[in-house]
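Ticket #4471: complex job returned nothing on first submit. Input attached below:
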Amino acid sequence: MTNPVIVEVTRGSLVESQHRGALVAVDGDGKVVFSIGDIDAPTFPRSACKAMQALPLMESGAADAYGFGDKELALACSSHNGEDAHVALAAAMLARAGRGVETLECGAHWSSSQKVLIHQARTMDKPTALHNNCSGKHAGFICACCHRGIDPNGYVGYDHPLQAEIRGVMESLTGAVLGHDNCGTDGCSIPTYAVPLRGLAHGFAKMATGNGLEPLRAKASRRLFDACMAEPFYVAGTGRACTALMEAAPGRIFAKTGAEGVFCAAIPEQGIAIAVKCDDGHSRASEAMVAAALSRFFGKDDPIRASLAAMATIEMHNWNGIHVGDIRATAAPTA
Amino acid sequence: MTNPVIVEVTRGSLVESQHRGALVAVDGDGKVVFSIGDIDAPTFPRSACKAMQALPLMESGAADAYGFGDKELALACSSHNGEDAHVALAAAMLARAGRGVETLECGAHWSSSQKVLIHQARTMDKPTALHNNCSGKHAGFICACCHRGIDPNGYVGYDHPLQAEIRGVMESLTGAVLGHDNCGTDGCSIPTYAVPLRGLAHGFAKMATGNGLEPLRAKASRRLFDACMAEPFYVAGTGRACTALMEAAPGRIFAKTGAEGVFCAAIPEQGIAIAVKCDDGHSRASEAMVAAALSRFFGKDDPIRASLAAMATIEMHNWNGIHVGDIRATAAPTA
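Support reply: We reran it on our side without changes. The output follows.
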């Protein structure tokens, strides 16, 4: 099927570009609350599922053993900007396991935030793996290995015990069978598995509610969500959508983006989770859509609804500050 | 109508994202050689029509009066990277008209090229209007005004004599009626007019062939195309698609990108022009499609065909250099 237009980009009085995609909101039992488009199409969650991938860090006892608090747990679930505080905390997490940057297998890159990149260019020769947006997740991976005496060498590989464990966690949460057939390699070199969008949302709804989860996993899931909601800067950073969505509703919204137009979110108090995939992979569309969808779960007089609705229509200004058009969610369903 | 998928983005063995769009190739008489999708949909050409907007600079005699050669003319048609050579040449063009950066009305921005941005961050406090990707075009605008004794103040405005002249040039070339109803404001603050994609391609085919043009305009058009093909670095810069396409076929291909997934190109020796619009505005798709479409006009044994085909399938490598997927044109028609 052809997914509907979910976001329009206007210029003057005309629509200049448009984004198609799918969206689904489910409850803890997997019941679809609302949906748009093909919610059963295989979708690579990319970084949107980092909180799922962080479960071994919690369930192994490594996080407690190394004394990790909300900031460290949020960073383990993050795609961060590479700001100084992110980099320092990733290094500190590794140090707790007696490791350093040399153990990271995620590769190095400059920040994708222009403001941070300018700062980086002025303060360092080149980035290290600690600056990689995934360094917190990888530090968590390494800690999960080291705490259990597993050699972290090669921890990004499909056959490494850690990735096998994560594969099992994600199969259990999403209900999808994962293997080489639906596996790709992510930007940070770990496996990423295409799963139906509906299953991805259901996995997050299970994490938000604990429905159907063993007590250890339910507790670990809740603690990761609480950490991200308590420290949204460490999930992304300055000017980023994940951070802004969680700051708009402190302690009430969990939100995590993934590359190629994926966004996952949950409202734990309502037992709801949402997954979005923009067909063309553009984050401006997934960001607007997830904000529009989340807004419907807050009452008409709740200022959170207005804050989220404002994020669903983004004014575009040119280099002289002139308002030239908007990015606006067009297909947000009524809850 | 719903445009077809023109570009797929793969990861592993799966399609992760896809881009829809329209494409048309026409000859100098406006006859459609081939097309994909809705080629009559109003489309903002954005920066893809800069060579059209540079015609007053030529036709007024300003370019000759100020002694502009290929590099200056290419820069007048450019969306440049803000590299040092681009910035210096824009300043030199303004100086020929006795003007400086203060006359530019395009606004300032850092380079969108990561490599150039790092260099800029290390060598200057903040960018000026000379670093704006449109500064060469704007320098050309100002020169066209000053040579004729027209006050350049407010030259970006819809009602300024220069913009009225450009409006007339574009109406004549594209066959579209332009006015407030199909006008938006571009990133650099000048008016941009939505025209049917077919008309945009026809305008470039007229410029490439001279068909139906007065001798002055035919000569000016040919000189601008020749300048861009002779100095492709000044049309875009290091690592950019416009530059790479023109370098792949020296003196035989003219190519110019525009924001929001537009690409225009011409093969003057064959009297053909092409226009592409990716529905969702992503340049990775318009770049792959224009390369695929251009490749079909070169013989099976011509190395240019292979060079262009290679640009129509771009390998994506992650931070560790692992080949994770491809961006590939899927709907390239046979010429």
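The mean pLDDT of chain B is 97. Closing as resolved unless it happens again.
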